[in-house]
């Protein structure tokens, strides 16, 4: 079906980050001739988020923000970027959105790309803590950096041992901080990887001087004269000049929910990124979407998902419907280690770990559900990552005995069944 | 200024100029179709894969181990594959021709 993409049509996008910006540029590629207006409450020209906790945070010089696209590309593609503007309401009956400054913007097509915000756990005293930060946007990274530089003792406690907490720990070590990570679960990265990987990352951080502690549930923060004392439920206490909270996110679904869109663990969309409301699409971290390969609805927090859904939505808006069908992938950089993950490991009942050439820092964990390879986590091992991706996509049956045998090098045909 | 020519999958040839950053960034700035640079240039995604014209291979040079590992089993690999985010824009690569991998 040909869609009306003509000049007088307006596509409005709420959220100008990985998802929102990519849908804007993809719309032009798909032939959208009408107006494109992008809104974000963040005042910065849209940037890559992953480096915030990685390269950007640890750089001691005034390094540049990694822009998603240079400023002039918005001009040349005729994309109107409205930064520092917050949307407070979607009115789907009158096809318009309202801004916090009282102004109104009409749309013919609307894309909700509102992402997520850090979840701040209800710990007693957390609202009065000194130098407490989350890590989601440019301002957070700048504020953490400033606080570290001006702190004499540089004692940092990171609440939460997920990938953002661990990357922040690694980067702050580079800046000379004394870092303690308090994880409530019995291991770090519990939500995203197998115990083998958690063990590897615990050791890596300990070798790099991070005090990494599991089973630590913070229940109280007491602050006086700029110094925080964190109390855990096992009666241990930790002192911090600076606290970084990294315990997960809350999806920004309120706008969509108030407009009456179907919400289910995120904004529910179909395989063309359409929401339950006509002419409204949703993409990125804020969506609950169907993954054909794993045959279930999921919510993802990743650049891959934001970019791939953006392309699908842009195509659908221009009437060239393509189904969203991607294998999730993700990466994390900590010290000299690059972790690359592909697939979804949820539901696995067996893992196979390989260490190449006796080098702990080159390993991979392969997740199986019976005979099906679900996911691969690769540490400094691009080969395992790329080959794993191909095997998962093709639902390739593998010979697990061969995969376990590290004397057999990783090759296209090494692990195939005879 | 360093001149680089990209040939896209639909055989369009586009010559662009730059003097800083990496080749992926230059391609994104110039809207080269097929170069996405999704990981922001940290050798994690391979959405910046190009095939160097054989005559220019010497100028460009071979990939690092990390990059070679990402390329070895890529479905689009050739003998002249590089990840363009790992190539710096410098005088040394002036005039090279890069085909977007397909
Ligand atoms: C520190 C950090 C490191 C990360 N590292 C990795 C990594 O290594 N690899 C990876 O794949 N992913 C990583 N991620 C996750 C990745 O950044 C996200 O998945 C991605 O940013 C999602 O893009 P998005 O556009 O859907 O949402 P977001 O990036 O959350 O953007 C949503 C935007 O919407 C705006 N917005 C929301 N509500 C409103 C409103 N009412 N009015 C106006 N604007 C609004 C927000 O200001 C925000 O800019 C990382 C994230 C962080 C924070
Ligand atoms: S941009 Fe991701 S590998 Fe080059």
Q: How do the strands and helices of this protein lay out in sequence?
A:
The complex is a heterodimer of chains A (418) and B (102).
Chain A: E1 10-14, H1 18-29, E2 35-40, H2 55-58, H3 71-76, E3 79-83, E4 87-91, E5 96-99, E6 104-106, E7 109-112, E8 116-118, E9 132-134, H4 138-150, E10 155-159, H5 163-174, E11 178-182, H6 195-207, E12 211-213, E13 218-224, E14 227-232, E15 237-240, E16 242-245, E17 249-251, H7 254-258, E18 267-268, E19 280-282, E20 287-291, E21 296-298, H8 303-317, E22 329-334, E23 337-343, E24 350-355, E25 363-369, E26 372-379, H9 382-394, H10 400-404
Parallel strand pairs in A: 1-2, 1-7, 2-3, 7-19, 9-16, 10-11, 10-16, 11-12, 18-20
Antiparallel strand pairs in A: 4-5, 5-6, 8-17, 13-14, 14-15, 20-21, 22-23, 23-26, 24-25, 25-26
Helix pairs in contact in A: 1-8
Chain B: E1 2-7, E2 13-18, H1 23-29, E3 49-52, H2 57-60, H3 65-72, E4 81-83, E5 96-100
Parallel strand pairs in B: 1-5
Antiparallel strand pairs in B: 1-2, 3-4, 3-5
The structure holds flavin-adenine dinucleotide and FE2/S2 (inorganic) cluster.
Flavin-adenine dinucleotide binds at residues 14-15, 17-20, 39-42, 49-50, 52-53, 86-87, 113-116, 135-136, 164, 252, 255, 284-285, 301-304, 306, 330-332 of chain A.
How would you describe this structure to a colleague?
The complex is a heterodimer of chains A (418) and B (102). Chain A is of the alpha/beta class. Chain A has three domains: 10-46 and 66-116 and 251-317, FAD/NAD(P)-binding domain, CATH 3.50.50; 126-247, FAD/NAD(P)-binding domain (3-Layer(bba) Sandwich); 336-404, FAD/NAD-linked reductase, C-terminal dimerisation domain (Enolase-like, domain 1), CATH 3.30.390. Chain A contains ten helices and 26 strands. In chain A, strands 3-2-1-7-19 form a five-stranded parallel β-sheet. A five-stranded parallel β-sheet of chain A has the order 9-16-10-11-12. Chain A has a five-stranded antiparallel β-sheet with strand order 22-23-26-25-24. In chain A, helix 1 (18-29) links the parallel strand 1 (10-14) and strand 2. In chain A, helix 1 runs parallel beside helix 8 (303-317). Chain A starts with 9 loop residues before the first strand and ends in a 14-residue tail after the last helix. Chain B is α+β, with helices and mostly antiparallel strands and 102 residues long. Chain B is built from three helices and five strands; from the N terminus they run E-E-H-E-H-H-E-E. In chain B, a hairpin with a 5-residue loop joins strand 1 (2-7) and strand 2. Chain A binds chain B through residues 25, 29, 48, 50-51, 54-55, 66, 69-70, 73, 77, 303-304, 307, 329, 331, 333, 338, 340, 380-383, 385-387, 390, 412, and chain B through 28-29, 31, 33, 36, 38-46, 66-75.
């Amino acid at each position: 079906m040909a869609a009306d993409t003509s000049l007088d049509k307006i596509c409005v996008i709420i959220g100008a980050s990985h998802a929102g910006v990519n849908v804007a540029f993809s719309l032009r590629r798909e032939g959208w001739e009408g107006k494109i207006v992008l809104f974000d409450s963040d005042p910065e020209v849209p940037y890559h988020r992953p480096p915030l906790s990685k390269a950007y945070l640890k750089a001691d010089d005034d390094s540049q923000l990694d822009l998603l696209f240079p400023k002039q590309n918005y001009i040349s593609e005729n994309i109107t970027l409205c930064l520092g503007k917050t949307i407070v309401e979607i009115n789907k009956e009158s096809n318009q959105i309202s801004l916090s400054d009282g102004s109104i913007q009409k749309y013919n097509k609307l894309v909700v790309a509102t992402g997520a915000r850090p979840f701040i756990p209800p710990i007693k005293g957390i609202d009065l803590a000194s130098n407490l930060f989350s890590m989601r946007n440019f301002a957070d990274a700048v504020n953490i950096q400033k606080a570290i530089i001006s702190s004499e003792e540089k004692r940092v406690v990171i609440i939460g041992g997920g990938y953002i907490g661990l990357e922040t720990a690694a980067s702050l070590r580079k800046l000379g901080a004394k870092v303690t990570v308090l994880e409530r679960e019995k291991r770090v990265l519990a939500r995203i990887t197998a115990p083998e990987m958690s063990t590897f990352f615990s050791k890596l951080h300990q070798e790099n001087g991070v005090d990494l502690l599991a089973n630590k549930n913070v229940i109280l923060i007491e602050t006086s004269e700029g110094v925080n004392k964190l109390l855990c439920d096992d009666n241990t206490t930790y002192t911090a000049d600076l606290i970084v909270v990294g315990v997960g996110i809350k999806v920004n679904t309120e706008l969509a929910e108030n407009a009456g869109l179907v919400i289910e663990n995120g904004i529910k969309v179909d395989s063309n990124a359409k929401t339950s409301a006509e002419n409204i699409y949703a993409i990125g971290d804020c969506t609950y979407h169907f993954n054909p390969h794993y045959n279930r609805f999921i919510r993802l927090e990743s650049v891959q998902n934001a970019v791939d859904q953006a392309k699908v939505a842009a195509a659908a808006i221009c009437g060239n419907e393509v189904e969203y069908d991607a294998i999730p992938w993700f990466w994390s950089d900590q010290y000299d280690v690059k972790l690359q993950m592909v697939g979804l490991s949820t539901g696995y009942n067996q893992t196979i770990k390989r260490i190449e050439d006796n080098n702990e820092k080159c390993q991979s964990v392969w997740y199986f559900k019976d005979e099906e390879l679900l996911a691969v986590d690769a540490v400094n091992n691009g080969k395992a990552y790329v080959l794993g991706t191909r095997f998962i996509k093709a639902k390739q049956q593998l010979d697990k005995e061969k995969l376990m045998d590290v004397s057999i090098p990783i090759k296209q045909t090494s692990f195939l069944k005879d | 200024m360093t001149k680089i020519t990209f040939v896209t999958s639909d055989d369009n040839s586009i010559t662009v100029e730059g003097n800083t950053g990496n080749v992926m960034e230059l391609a994104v700035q110039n809207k080269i179709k097929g170069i996405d640079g999704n990981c922001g240039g940290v050798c994690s995604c391979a959405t910046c894969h190009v095939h160097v014209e054989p005559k220019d291979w010497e100028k460009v040079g071979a990939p690092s181990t990390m990059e070679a590992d990402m390329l070895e089993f890529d479905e689009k690999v050739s003998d002249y594959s590089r990840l363009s985010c790992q190539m710096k824009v410098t005088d040394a690569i002036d005039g090279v021709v890069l085909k977007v991998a397909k």
